[in-house]
User: What shape does this take?
Amino acid sequence: MTARILLVDDETDVLEALRDRLRPARARWRVEIAQGAAAARDLLAEKGADVVLCDLSLIGGGDKLLEDVRATHPNVVRVLSSSRQDSAAAIAGARCAHQLLGRPFDVSTLLDALERASELAALIARPEIAAAARALGAPPPAPPLLTTLSNLGRDDVQTLSRALQSSPLVCAKLLQVASSPLFAGRRPIDSLDQAILRLGVTMTREIACALAAQGALGRAVSSSERERLAVHGMRVARLVGALSPVRSETALSTALLHDVGLLIAPTAEADHAALGAYVLALWGLPRAIVEGVAAHHAPSDADLIEMRPAALVYLAETLACPEEATGPLDEARLASLGHSPASIEAWRAQLARAEDGTC
Ligand SMILES: [Fe+2]
Ligand SMILES: [Fe+2]
Assistant: This one.
């Protein structure tokens, strides 16, 4: 599918150069250019776009243009670039843009950012997510540890351990996860390096991303509610681990994060699943996690057939913590999708063992 991007700058040369750099990806991107904010507003009104990219230094202010875009075209993804690496640029970006891009950028960084923007545009096109985005207004900034972990050059125990040491809270939670019955070996875990060795580098990194995302939110709720949701997330992660046919860091991260929307700003207009998915997508978490969070109370047929993360969280909550579920298990639907009453009984038994700590 081709996505439409509108590039905005005051200089025609800059726009032409940017368009040239995007030429190798022309099958993926249809590029429009606008010289100045007024031309951008006209083009947007006339043709629309999926993504708008402009620079903070645009005459009249790139942030002002993106604030207008937010008001007039809320489903368009807004990317702000800046050659300034200071807090003013970061604040402007956090206020009006979905993504802030440092300048100069190389083509792969730009395409990577645009790819994320395009995924976000597809997500925002869903009515429930669009309502969540509107209710949220200015998105919360991504936690620094999440950014660090996404940009780690090497994937080894030492590099990961060094990055994680900047966040004692995340380290403490990782030790807790690694020591949980799901991962317990013969020896108890008492150091970060041991935790990484037990979980594996990839799984540690994904779970740490989930914990960093969870830890960055929650200012809108009481500390007791934050603690309750953290404990609930760990419990559902344990249950999902027991249901998973294979151990999956994506499923565990989805389970840890599934109710993160409740930490943001519960509102009547936005349901917490959509709100959580929207913020996690903004922060660039993997699409499978975002999709899983979005659908954890209403998995699709495909989710349930393939036992994707949304289905695992839904089954874990409906069968083991019905007070958190939106209704009873739809056994007829599950049967029509190939899950027999015997498999449902087997899930119940697995979940009971997980609750007992015997698996
Ligand atoms: Fe939940
Ligand atoms: Fe939920």
